[in-house]
């Protein structure tokens, strides 16, 4: 049976990849996007070329408009809410825009789901930033990376929330609303606290999507600036693995509704942002990369990696694409699509 999927932010990096996956298996897809990001029109053009002009419905709309959101959601069986402002640095310079796109936008999407007659499933992409600086967690410094001293599997969902930066606050607001709409209204909603997601169709910029940004910059000869000591560690997760997580939650919605899941690459896929990634990139590129250096940026955690045990136990999910393979796939995509940058 085909389902009606509504993807807010469906022209973005994660959204366009999910749209591709859904269209390949014959689902009915509506993309709701304001097309404000540079890569969005290119992702729409790619989907149309791949599947045909009329393979999906495109609504050019804004999640900040409750009316537009309600209208778009009325026929949806599954709402995948990805739209929003995505960068910590942007949130610091323009906190109002960030609040309206993320906190208000998510509230509008939830209300649209609640008022719909179809009892839709609601998937929300939250962020590891809701855990804040985790200042109470002890770190150890190794030659090329920082690590947690005692959280051997990474940060669990039980780690206290500590919204840091306007972005952390706005995404965290959405995170808690989505969770509570399951409790209060019985909405079949699921929160995914996502780590560092990367993969094809990611038009990374300096303050968001660092793995793609550095790959694109290295390939096109742009200046890379490394902030902090370059030993900050993230657990990188390929977008295809993330989308399998969405599918698993939808399939097991009776268990997943009202739950929060960490979605990251875990300890198997740890990467420090320059001391370890730099050499990988130089090897793929076949030459040395000169970088500039900058101070630590606000809200930049030295370490974050997720403990995804809960998703593994309840959804039967774990990452399948390992770091080396995934980074090479991204590199090859950038190389094949240099004209897009």
Furnish the topology, listing elements before pairings.
Elements: E1 4-8, H1 13-24, E2 28-33, H2 40-51, E3 57-60, H3 66-73, E4 78-81, H4 88-93, H5 95-115, E5 121-127, E6 139-141, E7 146-148, H6 165-185, E8 188-194, E9 196-198, H7 210-220, E10 224-227, E11 233-238, H8 239-251, H9 253-256, E12 260-263, E13 270-272, H10 277-285, E14 291-294, E15 303-304, H11 309-315, H12 323-336
Parallel strand pairs: 1-2, 1-4, 2-3, 4-5, 5-8, 8-12, 9-11, 10-14, 11-15
Antiparallel strand pairs: 6-7, 11-13
Give the terminus-to-terminus CA distance.
Answer: 39 Å
If you compute it from the alpha carbons, what radius of gyration comes out, rounded to the nearest whole angstrom?
19 Å
Helix content: 40-55%
- Listing every helix as H and every strand as E from the N terminus to the C terminus, the arrangement reads EHEHEHEHHEEEHEEHEEHHEEHEEHH
Mean of all residue-level pLDDT scores: 96
Spatial strand sequence of the major β-sheet: 3-2-1-4-5-8-12
Number of strands: 15
Main sheet?
Answer: 7 strands, parallel
């Amino acid at each position: 049976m085909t389902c009606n999927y509504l993807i807010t932010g469906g022209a973005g990096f994660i959204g366009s990849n999910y749209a591709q996956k859904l269209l390949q298996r014959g689902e009915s897809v509506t993309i709701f996007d304001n097309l404000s990001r540079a890569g969005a029109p290119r992702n729409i053009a790619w989907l149309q070329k791949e599947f045909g002009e009329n393979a999906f419905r495109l609504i050019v709309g804004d999640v900040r408009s409750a009316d537009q959101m309600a209208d778009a959601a009325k026929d949806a069986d599954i709402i995948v809410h990805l739209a929003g402002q995505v960068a910590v640095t942007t949130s610091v310079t323009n906190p109002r825009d960030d609040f309206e796109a993320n906190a208000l936008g998510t509230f509008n999407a939830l209300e649209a789901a609640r008022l719909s007659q179809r009892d839709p499933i609601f998937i929300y992409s939250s962020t590891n930033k809701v855990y804040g600086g985790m200042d109470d967690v002890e770190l150890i410094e190794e030659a090329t990376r920082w690590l947690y001293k005692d959280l051997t599997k990474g940060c669990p969902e039980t780690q206290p929330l500590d919204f840091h930066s306007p972005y952390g606050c706005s995404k965290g607001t959405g995170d808690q609303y989505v969770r509570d709409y399951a409790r209060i209204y019985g909405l079949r909603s699921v929160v995914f606290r996502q780590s560092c997601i990367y993969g094809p169709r990611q038009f990374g910029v300096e303050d968001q999507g660092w793995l793609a940004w550095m790959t694109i910059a290295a390939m096109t000869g742009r200046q890379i600036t490394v902030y902090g000591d370059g030993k900050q560690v993230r657990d990188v997760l390929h977008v295809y693995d993330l989308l399998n997580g969405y599918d698993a939650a939808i399939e097991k919605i009776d268990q997943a509704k009202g739950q929060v899941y960490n979605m990251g690459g875990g300890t198997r896929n740890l990467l420090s942002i320059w001391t370890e990634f730099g050499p990988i990139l130089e090897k793929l590129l076949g030459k040395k990369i000169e970088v500039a250096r900058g101070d630590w940026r606000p809200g930049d955690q030295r370490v974050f990696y997720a403990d995804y045990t809960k998703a593994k136990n309840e959804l039967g999910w774990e990452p399948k694409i390992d770091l080396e393979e995934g980074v090479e796939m991204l590199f090859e995509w950038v190389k094949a699509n240099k004209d897009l940058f």
